[in-house]
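Morning F.,

Quick status update on the modeling queue. The single chain you submitted on Monday has been processed. Sequence for confirmation:
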Amino acid sequence: MFHFVRAIEEKQVKIIFLGDDKVGKTSIIRRFAENIFRERYKPTLGVQVFTKENYEYPANSNQKILIYLWDIGAQELYELVRPDYYVGVSGIVFVGDVTRPETIERIRHWANEVKQHVKYPHGWAVALNKIDLIGEEEKKTTKRRREALLELIPEKMRDSEKIFFTSAKNDLQIIELIDCVLSQIIK
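Structure tokens below.
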């Protein structure tokens, strides 16, 4: 008896994570790549690259993806070398911290920096991270708070299908965030 096995096709993608210090870029990446969360991390200096091997996207498709996840440091010291990290990028995740609205406002800065150095289409999404840190009183007004946070995002980026309220600690919307980026890259 013959058994036919569908060939597994592996693609490679590079997703960079951009945002201010302490917004949770490393936490999101480690939750996705290694299913790990730690309360404390040292700041990323320059860049740190993680991989997620054999990620099946779309689910049940037998299409395996090797994902390179680039955790890019936000320090001004690295501003001149950051564009080198953008070479070959397939997708971008902009990250802000819901407990620090100024980090969400600065997503515009990160988007402008990318626009200056990345000249071809790419997938993107926005992670409004640390949703688990919103207090009980604020959770009662979650809808209003979320709408207020969305107003801080640059108008051109207010695509509700590309904005995720995430928690790396509670593993909330992490896979959906990455799948959103992949859906724009892999057709």
